[in-house]
Amino acid sequence: MSLRRPSKEQPKNFDFNSTSLEVAKSIIAKYPKDKQQSAVMALLYIAQKQNSNWIPLAAMKYIGKFLDMPYIKVYEVATFYTMYNLAPVGKHLIQVCTTTPCMIRGAYKLVEACKEKISENENELSKDQSCSWMEVECLGACVNAPMLQINDDYYEDLDKEKTLKILDKILSGEATKPGSYRGRVNNEPENNRKTLMDLKNA
Ligand code: FES
User: What's the pTM?
Assistant: First the structure.
């Protein structure tokens, strides 16, 4: 389980830039007039995108004022979900799922690979400052366990050796291919279908 603490180093101020402001206003407009607080998750995500993929406390305060809701409520949302980063992360953020289905399929071997290639501790930047890694709870791809997420993409059916190769590529600036590393299409069964055999289009 990842330890989630706001960074000790915090900027004093945060404001949406013009692009973020425009997106935030268009999202808020989708909610009824007195329900704008429902947009808090989307606004946190916008703030994160604007601020190099992490959310400073100043941004939570700004969003609280923006949505007319108490700062502590924004803080509670931001600190609950692992999709929000509370401290600076690498340009390549590697999230390793270590919840039970991935754990029993070898997730900690993937963690070992991250420790070897990126940094000894999670939430620490690699030597070249380009990558960081963290453990997260279930990412909803248990059937392709063990897996990890790099920025917006899922890498599935992994083992330590495959993970090391992926990380080597990322660290040397090469493109990597998301998806199953055992050649499965999405989460199809290996060695053909085993159920619903009498249905043509199943
Ligand atoms: S347990 Fe890892 S994706 Fe669900």
Answer: 0.80
